[in-house]
Amino acid sequence: MADIDAVAAELYGLRPEEFTAARDAHAAAARKAGRRAEAKHIAALRKPTLAVWAANRLARADADQAERLLELGEGLREAHRTLSGEELRGLSHQQHVVIAAMAGEARRLAGEAGQDLSAAVQREVEQILRSVLADPEAAGAWVRGVLAKAPPPAVGFADVAPEPGAAPRPPMANAEGERGTEPETEREPERESKPKADAREAERTRRQAELAEEALARAETERAQARTGLEALDEETGLLEMRLERAREERERLAAAAEAADGRHREAVRAAKAARAAARKAGGR
């Protein structure tokens, strides 16, 4: 397995267009050496998309940064499990900022490798990083730079269920008040149910705040993506307009050349007719 891991590490460090030939060469070498199981495993390695390649390159370029992103994911999952709304709000905002910055860095690194990323591919990288935050298995492959395919899209951390019996953490004064030892009376059941109702209401409020923060983070991401896409389209429109202007200038040049060529052709036709007429006249004498 160590050899297979080494081959995978090599292959997923290559540019996508180099992947298939290198993979097939490694698989053929393993078959020739009689390592059929290894050859089969290598041959099954999946060629990464451009976005997956860029995400892998990002993890390889800065292992510490990749680990910090995974720690952020662990913090978000823990905040969901414990229903810690305040922590979740801060981490959700941090998630948005960090992922946007890392996707921009991925685009820069790809450019250094001679591969330009479009705005759409950069958005795919952002989605991959969000999915990695919520998927520990994908995170393990990504942090090693051997992610083979984009994980399923993740929207927040709704799939991370709270721990059994988890409830919002009450202030210390309230918690002490709930542990009171007043003697039971006919109104005791009513006093016991109020803390539970308060806890349920607090949990509901915290959950609403949590969902609102997730919605805000998604809205901020969508806004950033829309602006990035608009800027890319504006840039593309400018380039197309320049190309159109150059095409028009070239057309005018070619039209003038064609008109001049037509004139020369007409002169040549007249000269040829005159020459033929002169030849016939000379032959008839």
Describe, in short, the structure shown.
Helices cover 78% and strands 0% of the residues. It contains ten helices and no strands. The radius of gyration is 34 Å and the shape is elongated.
Provide the fold topology:
Layout: H1 2-11, H2 16-32, H3 36-43, H4 50-61, H5 63-81, H6 85-112, H7 119-134, H8 136-143, H9 172-178, H10 188-284
Helix pairs in contact: 2-3, 4-6, 4-7, 5-6, 5-8, 6-7, 6-10, 7-8
Description:
With 285 residues, the protein is mainly α. It has one domain. The chain is 78% helix and 0% strand. It contains ten helices and no strands. The protein is elongated, with a radius of gyration of 34 Å. The N and C termini lie far apart (101 Å). The relative contact order is 0.09.
Average the pLDDT over all residues and give the rounded result.
77
C-alpha-based Rg, rounded: 34 Å
What is the CA–CA distance across the termini? 101 Å
Number of helical regions: 10
Low-confidence stretches: 158-190
In total, the number of domains comes to 1
SSE string, helix = H, strand = E? HHHHHHHHHH
Helix content: over 70%
Strand coverage percent: under 5%
The overall strand count is 0
Class inferred from helices and paired strands? mainly alpha
Q: Can you summarize the main beta sheet? A: none
Overall 3D shape: elongated
